Amino acid sequence: MRLYLEPSVLVKLFKKEPDSNRMIDLLGALDERRDWFACTSRWSLLEVARALRKDEKPRELIELNLKELKRHRISFIEVTRKILSDSEIVIASHDIYASDALHVATYSHVAKMKRLDAMLSNDTHFKRLGTIVNVLTLSEVSTSRPSESRDPARL
Amino acid sequence: MSDEGPRTPYYEVYPSRLLVLKMQAVSVSAKLTRREAELLDKLTREYGFISKSEAIRSAVRFYLNLLELRSKDRLRMLQVINELIAPSSRTSSELVEEGHREEDEL
């Protein structure tokens, strides 16, 4: 599986809420399996930091959480002039937040080159952009290996 | 290395994923804020450490062990720490969405 990780799923790693354990399993699969790939915009780190700050996490914990994120096999895509100008076009034609537009533009920019399957997000805004971005939610992604899911002993 | 000369004392790191049983001791100095030093004093007494250095060594070993856990175990531990230190009922989607609204208002 090759995914673009949108910030709302990254914040899940540091919260106890529905699907947060699935997200931990997904990061584990990314670290252990060569056939898995994930990327996100470098901007996502700021969004994660802001979300944790809004959640009243102390500075030391926010810093530790961000260091943890960088320790996994996630590629952080630079915010380039091209991505910013593509984001402007997305905002002009769709009613979405500036940050969402940046993620759409980044996804579109790297989707072909990185052979991405989908953007992983729990943010409903992206569903409206179905034709531009293929969106998957955590409940739609399985981290079990094909042989595991066919093994009746594991069911 | 030569066997002659005074030997540096050895300290054992308790069995863990660090996989370091014995190592030569080195001194590391660190500056703390006055508040941190006061808390360290208090916790050294409360937990019965023989000195502040011993309390600091224990804290460092604990931290190193945490960071050396396997990827998924480390994330689970960090998730628990986040929930214990700053529990909240707001979901990740709500928090990210709030951030987006702020940016757009700017």
Explain how this protein is built.
The complex is a heterodimer of chains A (155) and B (106). Chain A has 155 residues and is an alpha/beta fold. Chain A has helices at 7-11, 20-32, 43-54, 59-70, 81-93, 98-111, 146-150, and strands at residues 2-5, 37-41, 74-77, 118-120, 135-136. In chain A, helix 3 (43-54) runs antiparallel to helix 4 and helix 5 crosses helix 6. The radius of gyration of chain A is 16 Å and the shape is globular. Chain B has 106 residues and is mainly alpha-helical. Helix content of chain B is 55%, strand content 6%. The longest helix of chain B is centred in the middle third of the chain and has 16 residues, at 52-67. Chain B is built from 4 helices and 2 strands, in the order E-E-H-H-H-H. Chain A binds chain B through residues 7-9, 11-17, 20-21, 24-25, 27-28, 31-32, 47, 50-52, 54-58, 61, 64-65, 68, 72, 97-100, 122-123, and chain B through 71-72, 74-76, 78-83, 85-86, 88, 90-93, 95-104.
Round the Cα radius of gyration of chain B to an integer and report it: 21 Å
Model regions low in confidence, pLDDT < 50 over at least 5 residues of chain B? none
Distance N to C terminus of chain A: 22 Å
Helix content of chain B: 40-55%
Uncertain residue segments of chain A:
150-155
In DSSP terms (H or I, runs of 4 or more residues), the helix count of chain A works out at 7
Spatial strand arrangement across the major sheet of chain B: 1-2
Alpha-beta content class of chain B: mainly alpha
Mean pLDDT of chain A: 89
Percent of residues of chain B in beta strands?
5-15%
Backbone CA Rg of chain A: 16 Å
Question: Approximately what portion of the residues of chain A adopt beta-strand conformation?
Answer: 5-15%
Q: What is the straight-line distance between the termini of chain B? A: 63 Å
Secondary-structure content class of chain A: alpha/beta
Number of separate strands of chain B: 2
Largest sheet, spatial ordering of strands of chain A: 3-2-1-4-5
Biggest sheet features of chain A: 5 strands, parallel
N-to-C series of helices and strands of chain A: EHHEHHEHHEEH
What's the overall geometry of chain B? elongated
Provide the succession of SSEs of chain B: EEHHHH
* Broad shape of chain A: globular
